[in-house]
C-alpha cells in the first residue's frame, strides 16, 4: 500500500525524494541518449590519424583540423548561410499564413470547416519522397531548381499543415469574448486580433515557430534532389563530406558539430518559451 | 508588447479614426453586425464589407485563402500530377521515347512485383515494432519523471537530445557507432563477443541483424518524442480520480490501467498517429545507415520508391508506388481514429 501511494503523486504534490532509483534509471537513459552524440562531437576535434584508429579514443589533444578542412577547403559557410536564410524565411512565411488559417478554422462556424481542416492535415500525410518527382518537374519548368526561393516556398508549403494544426487548438482555447469586448470598445477586427488575440497567442506561436524552424533546418530529401551547388543547404552538403570512400571520422564529427551546434544553442535559449508555449492550453484551463 | 497601448503615433491616429467611424455606424448597423464587428457601408468599402469580418460566410475563406492556395500548389497539384504520371509510361532517362496512356498498367506492375510486397512487409514490421517500443518506453519515462523534482528540467534536455538532432545526424552518428572496425558499439560489443569466442557482431552487414539495428536507432531517436507527448498528456489529467482511487485503496497497477491509461487516450491517439505516419516514411535513417541493404533486407517502401524513380528512372511506376503508399497511410489513420473512437465509446 505504501508503494502504491508513491505512484499516485500528482504533478503539484510535494516532492518525494525517496525515489532515488528513479534518478538512477533516468541518469542511465540520459547517458545513453547523450553519449553517442558526445563521442561524435569529440571525434570532430581529433586529428585524422587519431580518429581513424580502430579502438575508441577518449583522451587526445584537440585540434581544429577537420573544421578548417570543412570551412575553408570546402566552403561550408556558404551552405550554412543558405540553410539559415531558407529556414528563417520559411518559418516566417508558414507561421504568418498558417496563423490566419488556424484562426479562421478555430473561430468561424462555416460550412465545410471540418473538411478543410482534415484536408489540410492530409497534406502532411503525403510521404515527401512520393511528391518528389512531380515537384522536381514543376521546379524545372518554373526555373526554381537550385534556388533559395524555390526551397523557401516548398518548405513553407511543407510546414503549413503542421502550423495550422498546432495553432487551431491554441486559438480555440482563447475565449472569443476577449476580442468581442475589444471590438465593442471600438476596434476593428484586425486591431482586436493584433492587440488582444495575438499577444495571448505569442507563446504558442513562438513554440510552433521553433518547431518549424528546426524541421526546415533539418530537411534533407528535397534539399538533396532540388539543389546542386548554389542553394545547397547544410544537410546534403554534410552527407557529401561524411559518407563515402576515404572519408575520415573526424570530418564526420566536425560536420555533425557544425550542423547541430546552432540547433542545440537555439533550443537551449528558447527552452523556456517552448515549454510555456506547449503547455499554454493546459494552463489556461 | 502591451496590448492596451498603440505602439506608434500613427497607430494612435488610426485608432481614433476607427473610433469616429464606429460612432456613426454603431447606431445604424450595430445590432446586425454584432458578432463579428462593424464595417461602414461606404462605396469604397463595399468589397471589404462583402468579404470582410462582417460576413461570417466569406471572411474565413479570405483568411484561409493564402494557406489553401499554397497547399493546393504543393499538395494537390503534385498529387494530380502523380496521378497523370502514373497513367503514362514515362522513363526519366529516356525523355524522347514516346509516351502514351497505359491506364492502370503501372499499378498492376507494382502489385505483381514481389519486391513491392517485401518492402511493404518490411515497412509495416519496422513501423509496428518501433512505435510499440517507443510508446511504452516513452510512457514509462514520463511516469518516471513525475517522481523526480530536483534537476528534472536539466535531465529532460538530455533525454530530448536524440529528438532535437536532425534525423540525418542521428543516422550519421549511429552509422559511425555501428561501423565495423572503429565504431564505438562494434568495438565494445566485439570485446564481449570475442571473450565468448565469437566474432564481431555484423550490426549493419547481416540481413537479419541490420533490420533490428535500424529499429533500435529509430527507438533511440523517437522515444523522447513519445516521452514529451506523454508528459503533456499526464499533466492534463485531473487529480480527483487519483484521490478517489487512493481512498478506495486501489493498487498502483490498477490505478495505471483504469485511470491513467484511459484518461491519456487522446494524447496517446495523437502521439501514435504522428509517430506511425513518420515511421512509415522513415527515409534518412535507412538511406544513410544501410541504403536498403544488405540485399533488400531493409528496403522499405520509401527506399523502394526512390530506387525505382531515381535510380531506375521509372517515373511512372514510382508515381504508382507513391499513390499506393498514400492510400495505405490514409486507410491506416482512418482505422486508428475509428478504433480509438469505438473504444472510448464502449468504455463510457
Structure description:
The complex is a heterodimer of chains A (285) and B (348). Chain A has 285 residues and is mainly α. Chain A has a domain of 185 residues: MetI-like fold, CATH 1.10.3720. Helices cover 76% and strands 0% of the residues of chain A. Chain A has 14 helices and no strands. The N terminus of chain A is likely disordered. By secondary structure, chain B is mainly α. Chain B folds into 2 domains: 49 residues, no CATH class; 242 residues, MetI-like (MetI-like fold, Orthogonal Bundle), CATH 1.10.3720. The longest helix of chain B is centred in the last third of the chain and has 33 residues. Chain B starts with 8 loop residues before the first helix and ends with a helix. The interface between A and B is large, with 113 and 106 residues.
The succession of helices and strands of chain B, N to C, reads HHHHHHHHHHHHHH
Query: What are the segments of chain A in which pLDDT stays under 50 over at least 5 consecutive residues?
Result: 1-9
In what range is the share of β-strand residues of chain B?
under 5%
The domain tally of chain B reads 2
Q: What is the terminal separation of chain A in angstroms?
A: 33 Å
Computed Rg of chain B = 28 Å
Name the helicity range of chain B.
over 70%
CATH topology of the domain at 76-240 and 265-284 in chain A: MetI-like fold
Q: So what's the oligomer here?
A: heterodimer
Q: What CATH architecture of the largest domain in chain B would you give?
A: Orthogonal Bundle
Instruction: List the helices and strands of chain A in order.
Output: HHHHHHHHHHHHHH
Which structural class do you get from the secondary structure elements of chain B? Answer: mainly alpha
Main sheet characteristics of chain A: none
Name the CATH superfamily assignment of the largest domain in chain B. Answer: MetI-like
How many strand segments of chain A? 0
Q: Gap between N and C termini of chain B, in Å? A: 45 Å
Number of helical regions of chain A: 14
Amino acid at each position: 500500500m505504501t508503494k502504491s501511494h508513491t505512484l499516485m503523486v500528482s504533478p503539484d504534490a510535494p516532492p518525494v525524494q525517496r525515489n532515488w532509483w528513479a534518478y538512477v534509471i533516468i541518469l542511465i537513459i540520459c547517458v545513453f541518449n547523450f553519449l553517442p552524440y558526445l563521442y561524435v562531437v569529440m571525434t570532430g576535434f581529433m586529428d585524422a590519424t587519431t580518429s581513424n584508429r580502430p579502438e575508441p579514443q577518449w583522451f587526445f589533444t584537440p585540434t581544429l583540423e577537420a573544421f578548417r578542412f570543412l570551412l575553408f577547403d570546402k566552403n561550408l559557410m556558404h551552405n550554412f548561410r543558405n540553410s539559415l536564410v531558407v529556414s528563417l524565411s520559411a518559418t516566417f512565411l508558414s507561421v504568418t499564413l498558417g496563423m490566419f488559417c488556424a484562426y479562421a478554422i478555430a473561430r468561424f462556424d462555416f460550412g465545410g470547416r471540418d473538411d478543410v481542416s482534415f484536408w489540410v492535415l492530409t497534406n502532411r500525410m503525403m510521404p515527401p519522397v512520393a511528391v518528389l518527382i512531380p515537384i522536381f518537374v514543376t521546379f524545372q519548368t518554373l526555373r526554381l531548381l537550385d534556388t533559395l526561393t524555390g526551397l523557401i516556398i516548398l518548405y513553407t508549403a511543407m510546414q503549413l499543415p503542421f502550423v495550422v494544426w498546432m495553432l487551431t487548438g491554441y486559438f480555440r482555447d482563447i475565449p472569443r469574448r476577449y476580442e468581442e469586448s475589444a471590438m465593442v470598445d471600438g476596434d476593428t477586427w484586425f486591431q482586436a486580433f493584433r492587440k488582444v488575440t495575438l499577444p495571448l497567442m505569442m507563446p504558442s506561436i513562438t513554440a510552433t515557430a521553433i518547431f518549424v524552424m528546426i524541421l526546415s533546418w533539418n530537411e534533407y530529401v528535397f534539399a538533396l534532389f532540388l539543389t546542386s551547388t548554389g542553394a545547397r543547404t547544410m544537410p546534403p552538403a554534410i552527407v557529401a563530406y561524411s559518407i563515402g570512400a576515404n572519408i575520415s571520422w573526424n570530418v564526420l564529427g566536425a560536420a555533425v558539430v557544425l550542423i547541430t551546434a546552432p540547433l542545440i544553442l537555439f533550443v537551449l535559449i528558447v527552452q523556456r518559451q517552448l515549454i510555456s508555449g506547449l503547455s499554454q492550453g493546459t494552463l489556461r484551463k | 508588447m502591451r496590448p492596451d497601448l498603440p505602439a506608434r503615433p500613427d497607430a494612435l491616429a488610426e485608432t481614433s479614426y476607427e473610433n469616429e467611424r464606429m460612432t456613426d455606424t454603431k447606431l445604424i448597423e450595430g445590432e446586425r453586425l454584432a458578432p463579428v464587428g462593424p464595417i461602414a457601408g461606404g462605396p469604397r468599402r463595399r468589397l471589404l464589407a462583402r468579404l470582410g469580418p462582417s460576413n461570417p460566410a466569406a471572411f474565413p475563406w479570405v483568411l484561409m485563402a493564402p494557406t489553401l492556395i499554397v497547399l493546393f500548389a504543393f499538395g494537390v497539384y503534385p498529387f494530380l500530377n502523380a496521378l497523370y504520371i502514373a497513367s503514362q509510361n514515362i522513363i526519366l532517362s529516356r525523355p524522347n521515347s514516346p509516351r502514351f496512356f497505359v491506364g492502370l498498367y503501372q499499378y498492376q506492375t507494382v502489385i505483381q512485383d514481389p519486391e513491392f510486397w517485401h518492402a511493404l512487409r518490411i515497412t509495416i514490421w519496422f513501423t509496428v515494432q518501433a512505435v510499440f517500443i517507443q510508446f511504452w518506453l516513452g510512457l514509462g519515462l514520463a511516469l518516471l519523471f513525475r517522481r523526480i523534482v530536483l534537476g528534472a528540467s536539466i535531465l529532460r534536455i538530455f533525454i530530448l537530445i536524440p529528438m532535437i538532432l536532425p534525423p540525418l545526424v542521428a543516422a550519421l552518428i549511429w552509422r559511425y557507432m555501428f561501423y565495423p572496425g572503429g565504431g564505438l558499439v562494434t568495438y565494445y560489443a566485439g570485446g564481449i563477443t570475442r571473450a565468448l569466442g565469437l566474432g564481431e557482431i555484423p550490426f549493419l552487414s547481416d540481413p537479419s541483424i541490420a533490420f533490428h539495428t535500424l529499429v533500435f536507432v529509430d527507438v533511440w531517436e523517437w522515444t523522447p518524442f513519445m516521452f514529451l507527448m506523454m508528459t503533456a498528456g499526464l499533466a492534463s489529467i485531473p487529480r480527483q480520480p487519483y484521490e478517489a482511487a487512493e481512498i478506495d485503496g486501489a493498487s498502483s497497477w490498477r490505478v495505471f490501467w483504469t485511470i491513467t491509461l484511459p484518461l491519456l487516450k487522446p494524447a496517446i491517439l495523437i502521439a501514435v498517429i504522428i509517430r506511425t505516419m513518420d515511421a512509415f516514411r522513415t527515409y534518412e535513417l535507412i538511406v544513410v545507415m544501410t541504403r536498403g541493404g544488405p540485399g533488400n533486407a531493409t528496403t522499405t517502401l520509401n527506399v523502394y520508391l526512390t530506387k525505382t524513380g531515381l535510380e531506375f528512372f521509372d517515373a511512372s511506376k514510382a508515381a504508382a508506388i507513391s499513390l499506393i503508399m498514400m492510400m495505405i497511410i490514409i486507410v491506416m489513420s482512418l482505422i486508428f481514429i475509428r478504433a480509438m473512437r469505438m473504444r472510448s465509446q464502449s468504455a463510457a
